[in-house]
Amino acid sequence: ADGKTVPDRGTLKPIDTKSVKDALKKEAEEELSLENDSQTEYRIVGLAHDNLKPHHEFLLLGETKLTFKEIKEQARVSNRNKKLSQQDFEEKFVAIPATPEAIKTLLTEVKCPVPPAHAAAYLAAGYALMLERDKASADEWLNRMKIKVKENNDDINKKVREHYANHPEIKDEKEAERGPRDFNGYSPSRNPAEQGLPTFEEEMKRTGLIVG
């Protein structure tokens, strides 16, 4: 627009380990106000593809010297959180133990679906944690998790179908401004309660992942 020539306009920048990790640092600072010196270690543990909104995401596992409470205090001053009410801010955060066992509970017992790319990140993190024990156990854990996650998702979809079967009047609702329902299973465009499922907080408390 200003008549200047931009040599690399339209050229994708190369993606390598450094660029991915630099992007992680940038996101951590923007969303959580985490400075570089508070991140002690981070590594790429996988690559996920989201079929709902087609795109790829690098999966990273990071460690920090800060406690969960300190991370929340830092995040409060982030530009993305400054306008949130106290309740909205609190609802953005939840901490679970950094163990394969807790990840298993989250992905195979909680009856409130975790978004696909997020689930992939947890699987990759769990696998990386299992590798610290031994490779054979890690492979067995991941293979078992793939089966259990599918079983949990199938059970969630079954509960949604049963909800609509018990409330046929819902199918006659006209809500053009709302996202579509999927009468054969869970729809990410609607919240869980609208589909006969418990809330995320209820399930996290029921399964013991959070207390209170």
Task: Output the radius of gyration.
Answer: 20 Å
Structural class, please? mainly alpha
Number of strands: 2
Q: From N to C, what is the helix and strand string?
A: HEEHHHHHH
Distance between the termini: 56 Å
Average pLDDT = 86
Number of helices: 7
Q: How is the main sheet built?
A: 2 strands, antiparallel
Strand content: 5-15%
Strand order of the largest sheet: 1-2
Low-confidence stretches: none
Helical content class: 40-55%
Q: What would the principal axes of the Cα set say about the shape? A: globular
Detailed description of the structure:
The protein is mostly helical and 212 residues long. Helix content is 44%, strand content 10%. The protein has helices at 17-32, 68-75, 86-91, 100-108, 116-131, 135-166, 200-206; strands at 39-50, 55-64. Strands 1-2 form a two-stranded antiparallel sheet. The longest helix is centred in the C-terminal third of the chain and has 32 residues, at 135-166. The protein is globular. It starts with 16 loop residues before the first helix and ends in a 6-residue tail after the last helix. The model has no long low-confidence stretch (mean pLDDT 86).
Structure, briefly:
The protein has helices spanning 17-32, 68-75, 86-91, 100-108, 116-131, 135-166, 200-206, and strands at 39-50, 55-64.
Secondary structure layout plus pairing:
Layout: H1 17-32, E1 39-50, E2 55-64, H2 68-75, H3 86-91, H4 100-108, H5 116-131, H6 135-166, H7 200-206
Antiparallel strand pairs: 1-2
Helix pairs in contact: 4-5, 5-6
Characteristic key phrases:
single chain, 212 residues, mainly alpha, two-stranded antiparallel ribbon, globular
